[in-house]
Each structure stands twice: as structure tokens, then as C-alpha cells.
Amino acid sequence: MESAPNAGMPGDVLVVEDDPIISLYFEDTILGFGARTVRTAANVARALELIAERAPDFALLDVALVRGEKTFAIAERLDALKVPFAFVTGYGADIRLPESLADKPRLTKPCSSETLEAALRNEL
After folding, report:
1. Cβ 43 vs Cβ 18: under 8 Å
2. Where's the Response regulatory domain (predicted)?
3. d(C-alpha 70, C-alpha 33), whole Å
4. What's the domain range around 77?
5. Predicted local distance difference test score (pLDDT) of residue 119
């Protein structure tokens, strides 16, 4: 979906989330902040396809997807492309990230719109 751009807000955001209701919430909220485009993926393979088509300006990654799939391969690809991203998880601080990704921003679900906006503006 497309919206009007907002200064300081990434234009193209990738959301990797397997819960359709949460994904829709993130999409609507991010567009409301002024992002131009939000693309969504529910699994690692689709997210990597979207990144290969066009690298996003920012990505929001649910750590654990269905069937035990983790988004670490997506995070490593984004890191290599120097695309900022944040993990989002319902597991809080207990979730273990690979050492190479341990310093990346983490949001706890549910997260406030203020926290989400700060993450998108790289203020965390």
C-alpha cells in the first residue's frame, strides 16, 4: 500500500510477520506515520524475494515465525545491505539472538505506536 511520505520516516518498509492481524496493524500504523510503501511477508523465503526485488529503507522482523522459522537470515541480508531494521517479538528480552545481531533494536509485542515510530526513525 502507498501513502504520502513524511520527513524522517522511511519511504519503503518491509514487515515480516506471520500473524495477519498483527501484520495489518503494523501496515496501517506505519502508513499512518507517513511511510510511502509497506510490503509484507509471512515467511523467510518471501521476505528474501522482496529484498532481492528492491531493498527496503527499513524492516520490522518478527523473530519467530510459524513452523519454528526464525528471521535471522533476513536480518543478516539486511545488515549486509546496510538496511536498518528492528526485531519485534512476543518473547521479550528472553529471546536469544545470534551474537552478530544481539545489538539490534528489539521491540516487545504488543508495542506502543510511539515505540514503533521511534524504531522507524532509528531513534532506539
Report:
1. yes
2. 12-124
3. 27
4. 12-119
5. 93
